[in-house]
Design a protein that fits this description.
mainly alpha, Arc Repressor Mutant, subunit A, Tetracycline Repressor, domain 2, 2 domains, elongated
Length: about 230
């Protein structure tokens, strides 16, 4: 099975994410005179983009690889050259598309105040996740996770667990610098990301009635949390 390590930040991962944001529009474009490896990667990108569209439209259970192949304009057998099965394809999408958010938490600049790091986290979430088709990946995990626990476990092990560990490390350093009065946020880092999850749910149910300014809401939430946690 060829799935991408979520810790990787390869050119292939960047290309995959850009391709998925565009959506599947048939073959990924390849330059004239492209090598065999470049053509293979272009087909792979088209498959992932098509799969994202199919998963978002039909859900995990109803999506068929035949439909993914048709949307990507490749033979079904081509999919199996890159992915073992439908689950591996879904895991590829999850593992690569949420990397930008983890990068903010796992590699913050040294000695930057906690509030600035969290505001950058908010900006990255809104720009790289909420404002793109990546938010549909999160919504898919929420809706399909209860029926397909192996997908929920993959998401937890490769995204959530890493994010919580990075957030705790960030908050622990902030407390050591005197930015936090106690360990409440260290024990419950979920409080920081809660409005982002709520925004994903809201966008699917109520956005057409009452659109949210997600960036402003999440910044207000960070400000309120840090004000309450200040020494």
């Amino acid at each position: 099975m060829r799935t991408t390590d979520p810790k990787g930040r390869s050119a292939r991962s960047r290309a995959l994410r850009h391709g998925a944001d565009r959506g599947a529009r048939g073959h990924a474009r390849t330059p004239v005179g492209a090598t065999r490896a470049e053509k293979s990667e272009a087909r792979r990108q088209a498959i992932v983009a098509a799969a994202l569209d199919e998963f978002c439209t039909r859900g995990f259970a109803a999506t068929r690889l035949d439909d993914v192949a048709r949307r990507a304009k490749v033979a079904k057998g081509t999919i199996y050259l890159h992915f073992r099965d439908k689950q591996a394809l879904f895991q590829e999408i999850v593992g690569t598309m949420l990397v930008p958010l983890l990068g903010v938490l796992e590699a913050p600049p040294p000695d930057v105040p906690l509030r600035q790091v969290l505001e950058r986290f908010v900006d990255t979430f809104v720009r790289e996740i909420y404002s793109t088709e990546r938010r549909n990946v999160l919504r898919l995990v929420m809706t399909e996770g209860p029926r397909f626990p192996q997908l929920a476990e993959f998401y937890y092990r490769n995204v959530v667990e890493r994010a919580i560990a990075a957030m705790r490390a960030l908050l622990t350093r902030a407390k050591a610098r005197g930015e936090l009065k106690d360990d409440t946020l260290i024990r419950f880092p979920q409080l920081i990301v809660a409005p982002g999850m709520m925004a994903i749910i809201w966008s699917g149910l109520f956005d057409r009635f009452a659109p949210l300014d997600v960036a402003a809401m999440m910044r207000a939430h960070v400000a309120a949390l840090l004000e309450g946690a200040a020494p």
